[in-house]
Amino acid sequence: MANLPPHNYYTFTKESLRLQIPHNPRIWIGSRSCSWRIKNKNSGLVRAASAEFQETFAPFEYLICRENWRVRRMMETQEIRDVAYVQAEAFHEPMLLFNHLFFEFFKAEVLSGLVYRLRNSPPDRYACLVAESIHDLNKGIVGVVDVTVQREGPILEYLHSMDEYLYVSGIAVLSKFRRQGAATALLEACDVLCSLWGFRYLVLRAFEDDYGAQTLYSRAGYSIIYRDPPWVLPLPWIGVRRRVIMAKKVDKPENVE
Hints:
By secondary structure, the protein is an alpha+beta fold. It is built from 6 helices and 12 strands. It is 28% helix and 30% strand. The strands form 3 sheets. The protein has an 8-stranded mixed β-sheet. The radius of gyration is 19 Å and the shape is globular. The two termini are 23 Å apart.
């Protein structure tokens, strides 16, 4: 699609399908199993995007393009190992002995979890988003985030009569690309996906003592809705840390009906 002429609307014809969509790098047809209606405010033209169109074109569209980064959905078979590596590098705790061996075990565990989620989640209930450089595709995938539809009762109590929400987890950026805006781009892509899938809230968890992560999420519009109760004591030597739950309300975009 990057090579198409810069018209306000692109028209695709595939058998009986005819669809016109706006040329806008921030809008992405996000789910292969859902239909979206995109409206031109000036002409009032509306077309419905069928599952056939989304299956054909959606993997190549970007949810967001900002500064140096763009974010899209992972192409499952080609990129799943790269995604597992990014998350493993971000979350692996270095060991004094046999660190490389433990890293490989951890990466295999991350890969297994990705495969399980992909096989057992409908495409409009789970997505793995990947960030890559706008200017240099040879850098490959530099960041990832998982987005899953959830309906955890205690959290819904804070979300104003919502039945479900999008849960953001596993956000990770390769160490050499951190503090360059990739994580912010991933969070903005979650906002777009939340709107396209028809949800109003995004929810994530953070460690209470991870002030850097909380600052990142606060700047992205998240606020704390829950803290672990006082009797949950931090025990870092056995991996127990107090957590907070943060949420963000996302407005429905005007050009998606």
